[in-house]
Amino acid sequence: MEVALLEARQESGYSLDSNEDVIAKLRAAAAQHGCDGLLMTGSADSVVGSSNHGTGSVSTLKGYKASCLVWTTDPAGPPVPVAVQPPPPPPIPHCVPGESRACVGPGGCSGGQACAADGKHYEPCDCGPPK
Question: Residue 13 above 90 pLDDT?
């Protein structure tokens, strides 16, 4: 965002410009500068007068200050990412399908067992035919 300060006021003590006229001048200046927004920040009144051998007059020129706002990026900001849950990791296999290992089966027999096709478990221990 870029910011510039602007001021507008009546031009002389004889000005018939109303407050609305002065604000309209301020808005026109903002448009000329390409402002996306105008933030009124306060008064910019000015006291003017003259003196001529003891006589004189003083008047207040009504005015306003404002900040000119120019967005250099989308005022809504960058798009907010939608929270997306990543997919769960694939299950870690407990064994490699078809892999075999030694085991101790029923009655303490020595045998072997193979990993199931899904990799989630070993098949029951196989000690061969009974002897």
Answer: no
